[in-house]
Amino acid sequence: MSIPRHRALALLNLCVGDEIWNEETCHRSGIPPNWINEMSDAIESGYKTDTETIYVDNRATNQYHGVRDLDLAIRLGKALGVDVERATQTAISRRAMVQAIKQAVFDGD
Questions:
Q1: For the chain, give me the number of helices (H) and strands (E)?
Q2: How far lies 48's CA from each of 29, 45, 70, 109, in Å?
Q3: d(CA 60, CA 96)
Q4: Which of 58, 61, 77, 87 has the greatest number of CB atoms lying within 10 Å of its CB?
Q5: What is the reported pLDDT for 38?
């Protein structure tokens, strides 16, 4: 694991599943720089439903560059020894996936 367990647990606790962390926030939070480089991307808004739309300061935006906290939760879960695919197989939303990962860590799966 390239991140201390206590830091991984603290970061996982901050993940909700539908947020995007900018790179500055990632660096300040102690996410390893190589993780940020690998997971950081330009994410585009969708406008069919509100859950597809990215908001910055309560205003819709077309695109935002950063790390999806769902991707971070998956990476943290794997680093903490969770079989993420198994833990999330019945999750029906991004938030449910993050919650399943957290539960698997708590249960020691």
A1: 6, 5
A2: 32, 9, 21, 36
A3: 24
A4: 77
A5: 95
